[in-house]
Write a structure and sequence with these properties.
The protein is built from 4 helices and no strands. By secondary structure, the protein is an all-alpha fold. The protein is globular and about 25 Å long. The two termini are 14 Å apart. GO terms for molecular function: acyl binding; acyl carrier activity.
Length: 89
């Protein structure tokens, strides 16, 4: 049965819940185009927490170069989709 929900949508929902819980972000702030520093005001410790979330989702470490290249929530969602996060339902 198809519900019309993509894996990216499902990942966004899970990441949003974690960002709300762990970093105290508001649901309306958590959109793919939101930039971590400029829009959300995340600091380096928040980014470490975000990397921990990503590593938990994929089951593997995120390379430093990859982590530094991510600027938006959409970048994180794309990374998680490309690395198979959420494929085991």
């Amino acid at each position: 049965m198809t519900t019309g929900t993509t894996s990216a949508d499902a990942i966004l929902v899970r990441v949003a819940a974690m960002l709300e819980d762990k970093l105290g972000l508001l649901p309306e702030e958590i959109v793919p185009e939101a930039r971590f520093t400029n829009d959300l005001g995340l600091d380096s410790l928040d980014m470490v927490e975000l990397l921990t979330i990503m590593e938990a989702e994929t089951g593997s470490p995120v390379e430093d170069d990859t982590a530094h290249a991510m600027n938006t929530i959409g970048d994180v969602i794309t990374y998680l989709v490309e690395h198979g996060a959420g494929e085991t339902e």
